[in-house]
Amino acid sequence: MTDHTITVAGTAVDTRHWIGGERLASAETFSDVSPIDGSTLGEIARGGAAEAEAAVAAAKAAFPGWAATPRAERARILHAIADGVEKRLEELAIVETTDNGALLRSHRRGVMPRVAQNFRFFADWLLQLEHEDFTTYTSGSAAGRGHTNHVSWDPAGPCVLITPWNAPLMLATWKVAPALAAGNTVILKPAEWSPLTASLLADIAAEAGLPAGVLNVVQGYGAEAGNALVSHPDVRRISFTGSVPTARRIAESAAANLTPLSLELGGKSPLLVFADAEMDLAVDLAVEQYDNAGQVCLAGTRLLVEESIAEEFTRRFVERAARLTQGDPRDAATDIGPNIHPRQLEKIDGFVQRAIEAGARTVIGGHPGDGQYYAPTLLTDVAQDSEIVQEEVFGPVLTLQTFATEEEAVRLANDTRFGLAATIATGDPDRAQRVSAQLVAGTVWVNCFFVRDLQAPFGGSRLSGVGREGGTWSFDFYCDLKNTVTAPKGWKDHG
After folding, report:
1. Which backbone phi and psi does 326 adopt, to 5 degrees?
2. Catalytic site positions
3. CA nearest 400: which of 374, 426, 381, 372?
4. What Å distances lie between residue 415 and 282, 435, 462, CA to CA?
């Protein structure tokens, strides 16, 4: 262990920035604390305007060379990064669990394999990315007839990617991989509550042969580094996952330079359970919303249950939730770990206590546990316009409301400012199609949850976000699309 390296479960992590292919320290640091037991893991370099400027300069300098790198070579390096992730999967899993409190078994089985897949998918998608040429035929005039249109994806330039703390490496690489595949350079700003695996990613990328300056990691605390990055005139794209208030500030800063934005923000998603649903499946889907201690933007935190089955559903839900084990996320038997930070725990409990004071009834939970753990909570007797129904809690807190008709279910589901996701439990395929068509949501799951194909568009409606990423949509965002129009042989413009 040195002044700039900490050891987490046997893995050395450099706490400095990664800028222009070098490790750089800052005059100030901030403490990184594990939510598992409140222990300080180490002091992290605290970047500001100077570090942001250096990172953008490095990304700008590296951009021409990386943009000119043939697609096949870019793809090869991305696959090499994926190889590095898989080689160090166990290290990445334990470091991230220690840093943000998510389940170790989930990191091993799903999250870190998905990190590698993010790189592999976009590497392969890059090699098949093309748009079939088309011929222009203009009615009423000979002008333009027979001209060939060729669409291409040109790298945009340096991209600032700002990522959250609830799934740090997976959500970072969901952005980093397509940005790099497209030929852009990247400045990654990880969340200050879970900064460690971003540093390890920089090591892995360098070992894979990614040229210096193509990927830069700026650690920061608060808005110091972030403000400088999103307002920089040399930044060509900004992708952010996080809260609505922060997104508004980012948009204001980006507006001065008209920098294109992709924003994946909060959610208050409904889970609609109809009487014709398979009950065990519906209950399992509902209990699954406690995943990652409720710190999932997509979570269906508003349970909307048809009146005729509400009593049975609630009984089974309580029985199923009682079997959940809350505790140390490194233990294979644990189902729910801690919440990320004392401030987050206080925020969660504030929502719950205000709801109870307003008349909500606690079915289970309703209180914090020891340390940074919050008891899985279900509240009922809640008004549609109440804070607990309308605002994102981002903790293990669900509400249950009932409906009498399909029309009422859709009305309740759509009656928030958000539109990130929705889940439907029904045994009627026609109903599933009919209801999903009416829901305001970027993703609708029918009799399943959290199934994400990387080739599908992902994003939110209303206050849940701006834009879509995934598959070709990612390249549409991270590139400047160009249309080249070529006249046919012998063509002359006669006006």
Report:
1. -105, 135
2. 264, 297
3. 381
4. 22, 14, 11
